[in-house]
């Protein structure tokens, strides 16, 4: 499954479950996202492929997005599909600010746990329910010259 098919399947599941019906836009379901630049262009293209069922709104990363998401959800007017980072799930799901997916619909659209690294899939769940579908991961990698760093440590300890 490529990224485009994956996102379209996720949006189809969200639309089918009626997620965010309280906050539908002029032409359909409101979709709040954080994508700009090249990712934003690609997301606009994919949302356009769905048709007039999603009204995409791009918000600024960080506090503006998460404050809007929390306040709107608390007031029963949250977006339908959205893309909060999995690290935010423990702060939102226990408070009822996110609705879980119907696992049968996820399976019907090919979004199964075996398609994701186990640790990533587990972070998308809370109390046995699936609240997110992982979109991507951001590995943290550090490269360094071991020989040069070894000399720096030797020099520092010798002085």
Q: How would you characterize the overall build of this protein?
A:
By secondary structure, this protein is mainly alpha-helical. The protein has seven helices and four strands, in the order H-E-H-E-H-H-H-H-E-E-H. The protein has helices spanning 3-16, 37-50, 63-74, 89-92, 103-108, 118-123, 146-158; strands at residues 29-33, 54-58, 125-126, 129-130. The strands form two sheets. It has a two-stranded parallel sheet. A two-stranded antiparallel sheet has the order 3-4. A hairpin with a 2-residue loop joins strand 3 and strand 4 (129-130). The longest helix is centred in the first third of the chain and has 14 residues, at 3-16. The chain is globular. The N and C termini lie far apart (57 Å). 18% of the residues are buried. The model is unreliable at 15-22 (pLDDT under 50).
Order of helices and strands: HEHEHHHHEEH
Oligomer: single chain
Decide which structural class fits the backbone: mainly alpha
What is the radius of gyration? Answer: 20 Å
What percent strand?
5-15%
- Spatial strand sequence of the major β-sheet: 1-2
Average pLDDT works out at: 79
Main beta-sheet strand count, sense and barrel state: 2 strands, parallel
Helix content: 40-55%
Low-confidence parts: 15-22
How many alpha or pi helices? 7
Termini Cα gap:
57 Å
* Number of DSSP strand runs: 4
Approximate shape: globular
Short précis:
This protein is mainly alpha-helical. The chain has helices at residues 3-16, 37-50, 63-74, 89-92, 103-108, 118-123, 146-158, and strands spanning 29-33, 54-58, 125-126, 129-130.
């Amino acid at each position: 499954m490529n990224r485009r098919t994956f996102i379209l399947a996720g949006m189809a599941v969200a639309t089918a479950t009626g997620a965010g019906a309280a906050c539908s836009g002029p032409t359909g379901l409101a979709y709040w996202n954080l994508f700009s630049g090249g990712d934003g262009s690609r997301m606009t293209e994919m949302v356009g492929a769905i048709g007039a069922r999603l009204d995409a709104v791009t918000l600024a990363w960080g506090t503006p997005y998460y404050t809007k998401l929390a306040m709107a959800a608390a007031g029963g007017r949250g977006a339908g599909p959205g893309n909060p980072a999995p690290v935010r799930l423990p702060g939102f799901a226990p408070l009822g600010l996110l609705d879980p997916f119907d696992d049968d619909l996820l399976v019907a659209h090919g979004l199964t746990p075996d398609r994701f690294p186990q640790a990533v899939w587990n972070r998308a769940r809370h109390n046995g329910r699936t609240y997110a579908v992982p979109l991507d991961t951001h590995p943290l990698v550090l490269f360094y010259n071991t020989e040069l760093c070894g000399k720096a440590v030797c020099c520092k300890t010798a002085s």
